[in-house]
Every structure is written in C-alpha cells, then in structure tokens.
Amino acid sequence: QVQLVESGGGLVQPGGSLRLSCAASGFDFKYFAIGWFRQAPGKEREGVSCIDSSRGITYYADSVEDRFTISADNAKHTVYLQMNTLKPEDTATYYCAAVFRGPCPVVVSMRSQTALNGMDYWGKGTLVTVSS
Asked: How much of the chain is in helix, strand and coil states, percent to nearest 5?
C-alpha cells in the first residue's frame, strides 16, 4: 500500500523555522521525484520544492529559494523540507507528492488540478501557520 505521511507542521512566529518530513512507503523511492506543495485558504495549490535523489537534483519555487532546503534520506525513504525565515504568507497546508521519473522543474511549476492529476501519489498534508 502506497503511503506518504507528512509531519512537522505547527505554529511558528515570523522569522522562525520548521522542518517538515515526508515518510514514503509502498513504492520504489529511488525512481520517483518527491515534491512539496502548499495550499493556503482560498488559494490554489502550488509547487514549492522538488527532489530527485537518484539524479541529485533539487528545485525550488522563486518564493522560497534561499529560505527552504529540501533533502532526502534514502535509507529511511523520507524527504525533508527545512523552512527558515518563515513569513506569514508561507501559512498553508503543506503536502508531499511523488511522481515516477518526474522532472523537478515541471513538478514545481504545477498548480491546482494540474498538480493533482500530474503527481502519482499524495499525502494528506500538514498545516503550517506563521503568525505572531
């Protein structure tokens, strides 16, 4: 059974940090690109970051470049998103998703229904709230 389980969300003050985790099971991790997406209330789902561990590729949306870092522990089948210098506009539910051999620039460019249709597997999300 395929599962993607996110964790690590919570409430943080502006300027603070959080690390999200995405634990994957039920599929061959090394053949998939793993993306992080987010959806704020009333807004479309958008790509944030992506990692293709087998090719050593990471990719970021412009809005999070230099603040977020994606990494993977292949032995644990887990992908992390380290989020620093958080801003109120980063408030959203964060989802991880996997796509077979997906090119990361395409993954990060996906929005809304395109993202839902384009990724093979989705987690249920974890809420990040950035507020003072």
From this structure: 15, 50, 35
Which H or E element spans position 116? helix 112-118
How many Å apart are CA 37 and CA 81, to the nearest integer? 11
**Above pLDDT 70, what percent of the chain?**
100
For residue 7, give the amino acid letter: S
Beta bridge partners of 45: none
Amino acid, res. 36: W
Cα of first residue to Cα of last residue in the chain, in angstroms, is 40
Quick: pLDDT tens for 10-60: 999 999 999 999 999 998 878 999 999 999 999 999 999 999 988 889 999
CA distance 111 to 29: 23
**Cβ within 8 Å of residue 82, ≥6 positions away:** 17, 19, 68, 69, 70, 71
- In tens, the pLDDT along 1-19 reads 999 999 999 999 999 999 9
Q: How far apart (Å, rounded) are the C-alpha atoms in residues 30 and 10? A: 29
Q: What are the two backbone dihedrals, phi and then psi, of residue 107, each rounded to the nearest 5 degrees?
A: -55, -50
